[in-house]
Each structure stands twice: as C-alpha cells, then as structure tokens.
Amino acid sequence: MDTQAGSVDEENGRQLGEVELQCGICTKWFTADTFGIDTSSCLPFMTNYSFHCNVCHHSGNTYFLRKQANLKEMCLSALANLTWQSRTQDEHPKTMFSKDKDIIPFIDKYWECMTTRQRPGKMTWPNNIVKTMSKERDVFLVKEHPDPGSKDPEEDYPKFGLLDQDLSNIGPAYDNQKQSSAVSTSGNLNGGIAAGSSGKGRGAKRKQQDGGTTGTTKKARSDPLFSAQRLPPHGYPLEHPFNKDGYRYILAEPDPHAPDPEKLELDCWAGKPIPGDLYRACLYERVLLALHDRAPQLKISDDRLTVVGEKGYSMVRASHGVRKGAWYFEITVDEMPPDTAARLGWSQPLGNLQAPLGYDKFSYSWRSKKGTKFHQSIGKHYSSGYGQGDVLGFYINLPEDTETAKSLPDTYKDKALIKFKSYLYFEEKDFVDKAEKSLKQTPHSEIIFYKNGVNQGVAYKDIFEGVYFPAISLYKSCTVSINFGPCFKYPPKDLTYRPMSDMGWGAVVEHTLADVLYHVETEVDGRRSPPWEP
C-alpha cells in the first residue's frame, strides 16, 4: 500500500516495543506512526515486510507491503515480543519460554498479525515450529529438560529463546543488506542486518583474525568434533556438567594462540584424546552466578543474578574469583519465609557445594539467623541477624605479596578434555585433602560485612591464602539477588575497593596472558613455540 506523508522524521534512537519499519534502501529505522501507517495488523519485531521511506521511493511516497512469513520468522517475532514483554513487566526477566505455555499461545493469538498466510485448518503447525526452532540453532536456543533438582515442572519443556538477546538486531532480510553484511556474524537473527553487532564470549575481537570469519565458520561447522558453538546470552551452555563427585569442569573454546590452530579444522582427533593445548578456558566478560559451580537443586534466574534455595543448605559460587586486592559486592534478601535461612560470604573453589558456606576451611560466611559468622563449621557471635529486604555488603582484602597473588590463573591445558552436549570441557580432579594440608594463613588479609550500609566490623583476619569467589548458600526456599557492581545501593564510604564486576575483563586479561606464556614456555607436539622476537 502507498501512504502519503509530508516529511520524514528520522529516528535517532530505536523505539523497541513499538512497530518499527526499516527502509530497504537507506536502512534507516522509523516508527510506523511517523507516516500514519495502519499498524492494526502489525506487531513489533516483525520481519516479513518491504518498506521504502518517502525520500528513497521513486514516487515520493512511502511504500509498505506485508509479506507472507515462514515459521522461522514467526517464531523469531514471537520470541522477540515475549522477551521484550518479560523485560518490561517481570521483576526477573526471562530469556527462555515454554513451547506450550508461551510460544504457541502467542502465535495462535496473533497469527493474522504475524503473516498474510491463511490460518491452517489442521493444528499441525505447533509441531512444525518445534522442528523449525530445534533445527535453526544459529538463531534459537533450545532447552529440552529442566536442570536436575529444579522445581520447574517437566510439562513446561521444551523451552526456547533467542541466541542473540539484542532485539535491535531484528529486522527484514533485504537482499542488498545481506550482501553488505556478508562479513558480519553468520548467526545474525535477520539473516543479514545489524551490521556492527558484536559476538559474545571471551574477547570477541580477538577471535576475528584478518577480518574474515566466513570461511573458518563453514569449516568449523563441517567438523562435528570442533564445531564452533555459539553460547547463550549469558555465556554458558544451558545443559552442562556440574562440579561434583570430586571433579570440576571448565568450559573450553579453541585457542587462537595455539602453535597449530589449523588442527582445529581437522577431524583427525575423532576417537582419540583431544590435545588440551589447542583449547583454552572460555570466559564470559561479565561476573555472574556460575551455572556449573553450584548445587544442582538451586534454581538460578535467567539473568544469573538471583538464586532460590531448595531443601537443605547448598551453595553456588560466582563465575569469577579474586586473588589479590580489595573487592566488594552486595546481596539483597528478596524473600526469607519463616524457617528459611542464608549463609553468605566468600569461598575458595574447593568449598563444599552440598553444605552451608563456612562448613570447611575453604569458606567464610555470615548467617541470617542471629548474625552468626561461620568458618570450619564453628559459629561465633558477630552481629545482629538480617532478613527480608536487607541489603548486605561483602568486602575482602587480599595482600598482593602472596604466592597466589603473584601467580597467573591455571590454563587447564594439561587437563583432559571431555565432550558434553556438543561443548568441550576441561576436567579437573579435586584433591581436597592435599589442598587442606597446604593451606596457610595470609597476614593482613580481612573480611568485613555490611548491613544496609553500616559496617558490622571485621569478621575475619589472616584468612587462608587462595582465590576467593562470592558465594551464596541457602536453606529451604529463601531467595536472594546479587549485585556485582559497579553501582551499589550502599557503597562503603570508609574503605577503598573495586567492584567485583571489574573482575570480568580482568580475568580475560589474566587468562590470555597465562595462555600465551604457556605456548611460549611449554613444549607442544615435540617442539617449542616460537621465541619472543625483539
């Protein structure tokens, strides 16, 4: 249809959640209201249309035509709208949605707005959308079953979500844009728009070598062993092994600094042990609650910042830890029903996940009930207790002259690689008894807790040397949310510190340096990596 418009009002900022149209010639975005276009049969985040603004169209009028949408486009639009609604309406936004409870009802309700195709007489399309989203793994995330110990009912699954959570990348797949964006990420939601969208994961820029990625991506996808898997929005596979039974698992990705990275393109390792030096630890640049480093019964929110307890005490650690310096984070107690409790604080990697924080030598905690502090299962009076609505602060200061502080993180390259659900993981054995015997105190180290901005005093001094992670342990159905910074509700004014959020990119830098030094110093395949050149 053609609609007359007096002028073009270019939108400086996108109006997500409204019906927006992208010109197929100048690629600028406009709200439909700008030109008085009837949007009664339109939805936000639709892609099945052709639109030319009145500046670009030869007639001087705007041109808008809806097209028939395929199931992939309909699923994309449905998930985008569900994601946006959750972001704007829910206290804890979701990124994954139930096929039966969310996606199918949405498409059924808005079918006429999503496509010009007539609604089919037989209800076969619900099964077809599952096949479509399960097949299009470069666009959709799929989770077939709830996590072990999760309270989510099995009937809510499978769940689906968008791989790219940047909704501004969604738009019509104009042919000219496909050509102009050939060097952009192949997993782009609209098949070719959103130039300038960036990859997620550890140092995305470091992965783009020589400006060309298309050929490499195709090779990687053809190899079932080394297929390049894109990670979900918050940087970790939805289905993964948990740290338990004396073993820990570290997500791995191809190491671009390996001496022979071309080996990643070969299938010669099928049925053989995969060399660990070809891979590195995969880090996400944001500090969040770890999905794998937790008791499976704990339920983590989609944004990985809220956790709900289940039955007896169990623990979750953050994704990043610190080995030196002064650091701080906050926890808000969202819900604490009667007969529930929390122990919050700091833990080393070997702290027992199926026990309360402060149970062993590797962790220090502050309990909600009576404000007791715990270490090695010994409780001592510390402060008054805390409860629902309280905002708690956690400060740690680790000297910079210890052996741990001077060390780089482990590269894990000497560990075995295992494959789980199309992803590779380093497998590390825990030697708890040996680690306990080697623990030594660190002079001038300290831990301080805060309650609603008030310093509760030094809880621990001269703690055991090691790498410490923010940690949460909950008893029964208590709910807490964590804030790693940099903005806090009650920032301490009596101490200097860095927010835990700074450790995101800090860890990327440390691990990159450790990986590069490994290749410089370590013999690989019977030869040494090239020496440094002056």
Plain-language structure description:
By secondary structure, the protein is α+β, with helices and mostly antiparallel strands. The protein folds into 2 domains: 160 residues, DNA primase DNAg catalytic core, N-terminal domain, CATH 3.90.980.20; 265 residues, SPRY domain (Jelly Rolls, Sandwich). Helix content is 18%, strand content 25%. It has 10 helices and 29 strands. The strands form 7 sheets. Strands 12, 13, 15, 20, 23, 24, 26 and 27 form an 8-stranded mixed sheet that branches. It has a 7-stranded antiparallel sheet with strand order 11-14-25-16-17-18-19, with no helix packed on it. Strand 2 and strand 3 form a beta hairpin. Helix 1 packs across helix 2. The N terminus and C terminus are likely disordered. Keywords: Chromatin regulator, DNA-binding, Metal-binding, Methylation, Methyltransferase, Nucleus, Phosphoprotein, Transcription, Transcription regulation, Transferase, Ubl conjugation, Zinc, Zinc-finger. This is Set1/Ash2 histone methyltransferase complex subunit ASH2. It is found in: Nucleus. Its main location: nucleus. Pfam families: ASH2L-like_WH, PHD_ash2p_like, SPRY.
